[in-house]
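Weekend entry, working from home. Most of the wet-lab plans are on hold until the incubator is repaired, so I used the time to fold the two sequences that have been sitting in the queue since the last round of cloning. Logging both here for the record. First:
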Amino acid sequence: MLKSTKWLELKEMKFPAKGIYGYVFSHEIRCNGRIIAIMPWRKNGGKAFYLLRNEITPCWDPDRPTMSSITGGVDPGRTQEETALLELWEEAGYHGTTESVGSNGLPRWRKLGACYGTKSTDTVYSLFCVDVTGLKPKHPPGDGSELEEKAKNLWVLDSLIGTAVDPLVYILHYRTKHMIERTDAERRRDHQARFQGMMKKVGKMLGGKIG
């Protein structure tokens, strides 16, 4: 270990046999290198909108807010799902459970796997998306910090995702959009299969064959 604070450790890895002679990286002590990231989304007029935070991230720009994802460190004794629910409430104002079902009969919450942030940290991000279509949010209480009190939430279309500087926004959007498209395709196939099955039954009733 090269340096340690209550928030962060700076480590150096050496494995000459593996060609590693001094790889320096950071480890987030506050959450033991585990963070969740969520992308709330909703359908409106047949289009998908995604919720981002417009907030100041001091190490990026201490004066200008930037669009970023909803994230939170996983505290000891708390699960990833519990952390995701807490952050969704604190930063977006939505209450719920990870078992909740939307009006379409499908789960609102989906796990989107995990990813790393950069090659200079060992932090692992567990990714989630949640369908909040039809839900009415309350005022987000935040975590009590001044920066969160100043932050604002923005609903954006695909076309604005590219203006974000937070890399997590891109992977969350990619995986969420892919999940939405896959789910929509599965629903269309299911609907078509049910329709064809119904038409065959009607055909038999009429003594003929339809479909």
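Second, folded right after the first finished:
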Amino acid sequence: MAPVRRVRRVVRRIDPWTVLKVSFVFNAIMALAFVLGSVIFWSIFVNAGVPDKITDFAERLTLTFEADGELYFRVVLLLAVIWAILMTGLATLGSVLYNLIADTVGGVEVVVLEEVITTPVTPGGNVGIRPARRPATRRASPPRQASPTPRPPVPATDQPAAAATVEAAKSESPPAPAAPAQQTRPADATG
């Protein structure tokens, strides 16, 4: 088993649009499963003769009861559609409320176990340890600044010439700063 380290993460925001899409697909699949399950249950129920037995029992009690499968299917379908829309709206509203509360209290802290993968020893190198996965968020890197003294290009084929270029660059002294110009007043002709 690879070594594991504990990492604390804070869930500060949940995107409501993503929650809407995911919960809609999930609730649509659940509604479809509910409708199909009800149809299968009703067909087994009818094949066993249970609705006829319930109708006969209701007639003995002087009640009127008629098992109408098509009506029941319509009711189940309507309830499934209403349930899917209602649960999708509630999940989206829940994500908006979570974001408002997380802005106030800072979010939910989650402890995650992160697997650490070790790389084999390379000849002449050290053992490197890196995390199994990097976080999905990107952080802005600070802007890079240019180096203060540009270096002259070094030709790759001529090593003595390269050394001479480096020595010449070192021996050059920086130019002396220019002296500020003195301002003179024009001579006054009257005085």
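Plan for Monday: verify the second prediction. The first strand starts at residue 4 and ends at 11.
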